[in-house]
Amino acid sequence: MLLELGRHNDAEELFLKIQEKFPDEEWGYLGLAHLARKHKGTNGELEQLEKLMDKYPNRYQINMRYGVLLRKVGRYEEAEACFQHLKNQRPNDKDVLCALFWTARTARQYDVALKRSEELIQKFSANDEYVKMHLHALIDILEYDRAQEIFDHHRTDESDPDYLIMQAVIYWEKLEIIWTP
Asked: How many other C-beta atoms are found inside a 10 Å radius of the C-beta of residue 106?
């Protein structure tokens, strides 16, 4: 709240107190990283997180935020390494597996993204969001018929509307190919 009110000095003081009182928790440190972003943008936050990574290399929240920022600035190989490190610690963590998917897809490594979305579906088959990710990965590699099969296989009466919209996306993408000269 202090950050939102523009009271950055008070926020910094609070984060330092949290850091001092709870040195084994990452929340004070992450607060300081968030404050760095307010002052210096993404690069400032990255610098702060790099210091934290040196000090706390196995902290989940720090690694996740660092990996996301690396991906955001196009440092895909480093983001990949960061998320792989977390996957070694937590092989079935949904957030880590999603982060790896998005890293590959953002880096335009569509075959890798496809494999990662398949892994998500295998581990968490009842999740429409992961099926949507898989459908997007199939569309990325122009596998429209396979995307339709997966869509039909996973569609249920309980499917959320965002999932059902994927039918239109599949049709639209197929039309784009047909009508592109």
From this structure: 14
